[in-house]
Amino acid sequence: MAERAESGDTGGPDLSELDGAANTLLLAPSLGSRGRNAGMELLARTPPEQTNVLAVTYTESPSEFVDRWNERVGTDPSRGGIVAVGQSESRIDNSSWAVRNVENPSDLTGVGIELSELLSGMANASGDDEHIAVSFHSITSLLQYADVQRAFRFLHVVTGRVKTVGGVGHYHIDPEAHDRKTLATLKGLFNAVAEIDEDGNWDIQR
What we know:
Layout: E1 2-5, E2 23-27, H1 34-43, E3 51-57, H2 62-72, E4 79-85, E5 97-102, H3 108-125, E6 131-137, H4 139-142, H5 148-164, E7 168-173, H6 180-187, E8 192-196, E9 202-205
Parallel strand pairs: 2-7, 2-8, 3-4, 3-6, 4-5, 6-7
Antiparallel strand pairs: 1-9, 8-9
């Protein structure tokens, strides 16, 4: 089923078609703010005080991510975690956010360990009324350091862990940066695909 999501009553897009989807592939350009803004809309679907936010970022510093979160949401999440990939040691002056660094972006094992530890900590500490939301930015960056087969195996583990803890995750990819075969292979990992067009409209497929 496909749905074009227009703006809802809150001024944001109607993303109800994604309800129940543990892992969503987000197709959006790497350049510009459209993809990042779309990702923040997905993270902010639940009240921040009831949301555990986990971000994996290859291109954005932890402080830049937190600044964008604060600009969009205006308050800290219940718990926040950031895995900064390909970046040297970096910290933020906000106790609501835990930062882990993986300096070598080819070290998928290291990325997986840091992500899993943060995810497990959130799952163990969360109450029944709390949510876990995961952002992976981006698969396009990941594929600069791993071939499709290795990236597929890595993402298969990650998406499985997100589903196991009852979380929801979205994973950015720039559709213009990859061939159809690569996109078709990766789509098989996800419960839904959301694409953002040039006008900011969402096309959602389940």
